[in-house]
Design a protein that fits this description.
With 507 residues, the chain is mainly α. The protein contains 24 helices and six strands. Helix 22 links the parallel strand 2 and strand 3. Helix 7 packs parallel to helix 10. The chain is globular and about 80 Å long.
Length: 507
Amino acid sequence: MFTSRKTLVRCGLIFFIAVNILYFLYAAYFQYVWHDEVFVLLHLSGHTIDELTAVLFDGRIKSIGELKQFQGINLDRGFPDTLYSVYSGPNYDLPLYYSLLWILARIFGNSDLVLRGFSVLIWFGLLWAVYRLSFQLFKNQKIALLTAFLVFISPRFTGYALGIWEYGLYAFIATLSSFLFLKALESSHSREYRDWLLYGLSIVAGLYTHVFFIFIFLFHILYFFSNRDRFSELAKKYSSRIWLGSFLIYSIWLTRIFYRRVSVFSWSKGRWPWEKLIDRWITTFAGFFPDIPFIPTGVASFTNYALVSLILFSLFYLARKTDRKISSFALLLTGIPFLGLLILDIVLDFRYTVVGRFYLPSFIGISLAIAFLLSEGLQYYRIITSIALVLLTIFGLISRVPNPPEGNRFLGYGSNLPNAYPIINRSHKPLIIAESWLDGLPLIQVTDPNTEYLFWKPSIKISLPTLQTRFSDIFILTPSEKLKQEIERSDGRLKPTENTALWRVEK
């Protein structure tokens, strides 16, 4: 009986892994390069934003081939150029993810499958790290498997498994460093030095991955001091030295603050009203669970409240039923990233907590609490646990069913150009006029090779009669009033297409 159950579990794991590999291969092929990813690919190319804008807004029409030099690895730019691009950028980006991606792209090429495949590998690494963290904390394989399963089916993590950005690596290193931290605290004398060294390396890696990893750094310090009477003198000595050394190494990158003015996600400036903010928090935390299909809109709001209540109850149950050493770890892991950002929101007038990816490690803490509740809290109600797991599995698999390519390619916000490329590609020789390179550059990945681009600023004069002799159609991306006036000055007339972000110039 035991052997057959073990075989069933293994078959189930193989099935889920196979489903996800197929899902990711499909989605990676059809995924659209959007706003944030354009920044990543620009850094990868080794060009700076100043260099990009100087070339794009020189008044000349550009081919797709000319523009692609700014989107991915370049033969004429090396690794130091990529580091400088990240270092000199206006956002407070950190270099580890870009360095790893540069090495991978240099070896295997710039294809979407390679660039997004790196994120998929990180996602599978995250599942392993979650399992190891949970097992290290609870010393229970069943809870560890449940924790990894919850992360496996959670859209909160799957959504970042395909992105060309650092958030998957951020979640992975946050989880890995937390596991190595627990392991170092509990290591035997003969392995103590090695375990603390690995933990120190993971902290440095995290600090060089994402700016908000500082909250994981803070979480480890608070956890240690809240339980310091339970740790050895050697642990106290090693931990203090590692934290100091890690921060000193991290301070090398802090010098960029003196190089030029930088911002930390300045687009998040401006706090929302509390009612709207709380509603977003509920939606974000409920988004840890897979969507329930075919549910009416009115019921969905009630479901979100129920799911958030389940999260709060699981955290409360964990705090009541486990040792302080366990409960404080899970509660601090859940609370510190979110509450740290909330303090920044209140003090500095930001809205960081609106963006769930900024506090992804909090959802690791939530998965620990829910896994403990399902395993231990409902052990006398196994039928409830079984039904819950079956439903989570079904909903998780349904969420993997891909949209048609036309819809899937433009998932995500930021570009304001969903499904623009089919309209453009119906033209024989189109010209696209854009005011923002963040709008224009994503389209070079999906428009036909004969498409050309003109990036406009007010000092550039447009001669429509000349352009209309060269191109079969002229499209405008999200035109401003100034651009509309420039088109009218050249005796042109704008007509909206079925896409609200795309306009056509009438002949």
